[in-house]
Design goal:
single chain; about 575 residues; 21 helices; elongated
Length: about 575
């Protein structure tokens, strides 16, 4: 995985040199050549609601351990937060003022070493109280936040984009480096396979939106005795060179910024060994981000692309490799939830199969429901999508990409939500019903179809069908009853059908008599349905049902209900015409 990240960084020509990194900066403080404040400019797209700012590809960067090395107060160089650069809203915060002084001092050190009159002008301006007051007033007018990042422009030169300070910066940063533990000399780098001196403390990546710290989280770190072995210290337990550490960090940062999706507390990052066109992005199809295409066409898009590959019309995709990382943060650590690697053709087949397995009849019957987006599948497992644990999201995503069984937790959660929907008389959620079907298919041994299957071998399935017909019968006979058979008995019937269905069947005769008085043909239609289902059961109503059998019960109930909605007669007709009216 690390080697592939290094390859990604190299192919995409990312900035991987230690001490440099891309930074997104929101505010540009523009000074004239005489140090006079000209303007404070919002970078990026000010019309955007949460405008992050503009990315600068090669900014100087100190890691946290470098900022505190030797117990001195330090700051970043040429960019920092507004409260540090301009003492914005710091009031009596002595520590922020110390960081401001450190920020100015770095510019003076750089000027003395490498020249660049703009550095001196900026340093002088930031030590001028009147200029600082003007900067703060403009930031206040723009409603800037103290933690927004800012940088400086002097005349026509944006300081972070100038390269005259690069040589000095490398020397300055080298003076802050901690010596690696003696035991770590000349170990094999896990990323390159070459001998190296292990880099002690690795740079951080930003996963604050999925549980990580705002200051960043490390992928490789050993700060607890339980994480170490053989007396090795820090990252000597996973030896990686400094260059490789910054290279994999650059790759991760680029992937997180440009090729990732946040899915229920986790972040999915993915890439291909060769870039693919946006319209060929299988993950966008899976998640439902298909541009102008409708969500319902995602399944068809995957099918068309797979057919083109198999017909030899897209040879450039045949040996293209796919890689995916599922990440989340846990405090200061990056949690790798999943790693997937496969070829493009296999990925297309697996995603097509994912859609196939989730296919389910529409709740109104007569057609298939639109294929759910991946987020809809995840969201179907809880009242709110935020309540779905990140590890479960990662396992579901892995299942979609690799054609492996769905986790048992997904079945249990979906079944629980289905019960709630039925008891509370909510509309059926197609994604939940699809999850039940897909889980059973991928477990093996179950021949599940999108539509009703009267020949299904499971008694549990036919018990669900029977309850659907009996509930419909009661609603027809007693339309004014508020709490019907389903609301009162579904939970018990789906777990212990023999105990409940027999009693409901005995009362069904009264409902049939009432329907027959008004509509003999409709009563005959119900009688035929009950007889057909009892014939499939062969009087074999199970005493108890396992979790999987309860899923079969729910699918039988749902598919029978959908079938009846599409085919039940609306008027009093004779039995033969009723049968002909069914699809």
């Amino acid at each position: 995985m690390l080697n592939l990240l290094l390859d990604y960084a190299q192919r995409n020509q990312l900035v991987t040199e230690p001490g440099f990194a891309p930074k997104t900066i929101k505010w540009l403080i523009w000074l004239g050549s005489d140090g006079e404040l000209l303007d404070v400019i919002e970078l990026g797209d000010p019309s955007q609601k949460n405008n992050p700012g503009q990315e600068f590809a090669r900014c100087p960067e100190l890691k946290q351990n470098e900022l505190i090395a030797g117990g001195r107060t330090r700051s970043q160089f040429l960019w920092e937060t507004c409260d540090v650069v301009a003492t914005y809203r710091v009031e009596t915060d002595a520590k922020k003022r110390q960081k401001h002084d450190a920020f100015v001092d770095l510019m003076r050190q750089a000027f003395q070493s490498c020249g660049g009159e703009e550095l001196r002008i900026a340093a002088d301006a930031l030590q001028n109280k009147d200029t600082l007051d003007q900067i703060c007033q403009m930031l206040e007018q723009h409603k800037a936040r103290p933690q927004d990042r800012a940088t400086l422009r002097v005349g026509d030169v944006i300081l972070v984009e100038d390269d005259r300070w690069h040589k000095w910066w490398r020397q300055y940063r080298a003076s802050l480096q901690a010596k690696a533990p003696a035991t770590s000399a000349q170990m094999v780098c896990f990323a390159t396979g070459q001998p190296t001196q292990p880099f002690a403390t690795h740079p951080k990546v930003n996963l604050a939106d999925v549980g990580g710290q705002s200051t960043g989280s490390v992928l490789i770190g050993f700060d607890k005795d339980a994480f170490t072995s053989y007396g090795l210290k820090q990252s000597a337990n996973c030896a990686v060179s400094e260059d490789a550490a910054y290279a994999y960090r650059a790759a991760l940062q680029d992937l997180l910024a440009n090729h990732s999706r946040v899915l229920a507390g986790a972040k999915i990052t993915y890439w291909f060994s060769r870039a693919v066109k946006p319209e060929d992005d299988l993950i966008a199809m899976l998640i439902g981000e298909t541009g102008a295409q409708q969500e319902a066409s995602a399944h068809a898009q995957v099918q068309r692309l797979l057919q083109a590959i198999e017909a030899g019309q897209r040879p450039e995709l045949m040996d293209n490799r796919f890689y995916a990382l599922t990440l989340s943060g846990s405090g200061g650590r990056v949690m790798v939830r999943d790693w997937t690697e496969t070829d493009f053709k296999t990925l297309a087949r697996n995603i097509k199969q994912w859609f196939d397995d989730l296919e389910i009849v529409h709740r109104e019957g007569g057609k298939l429901a639109e294929p759910p987006k991946f987020l809809a599948v995840v969201g179907a497992l809880a009242r709110e999508i935020k309540d779905v644990p990140p590890p479960l999201t990662a396992r579901l995503f892995h299942s979609a990409l690799t054609r492996t069984p769905l986790p048992g937790e997904a079945l249990a959660r979906a079944l629980q939500r289905v019960r709630v929907d039925i008891i509370e008389n909510n509309p059926f959620n197609h994604a939940r019903m699809g999850i039940l079907k897909a889980t059973l298919i991928r477990k093996g041994g179950y021949n599940m179809q999108p539509y009703l299957n009267p020949q299904h071998p499971s008694p549990a399935y036919h018990c669900g069908r029977l309850l659907a017909v009996l509930a419909s019968l009661q609603r027809t006979a007693l339309p004014s009853v508020e709490a019907g058979v389903v609301q009162r008995f579904y939970a018990a019937a789906s777990a212990t059908p023999a105990l409940v269905l027999g009693r409901i069947l005995r009362t069904a005769q009264f409902h049939l008599d009432k329907v027959r008085a008004d509509s003999p043909g409709l009563a005959a239609w119900y009688e035929n349905r009950i007889a057909e289902i009892m014939g499939a059961l062969k009087d074999n109503i199970p005493a108890t049902l396992s979790l999987e059998e309860q899923s079969l019960f729910a699918l039988g109930y749902y598919q029978q209900m959908a079938q009846d909605r599409a085919g039940k007669p609306e008027t009093d007709t004779n039995p033969s015409s009723q049968e002909e009216a069914e699809p």
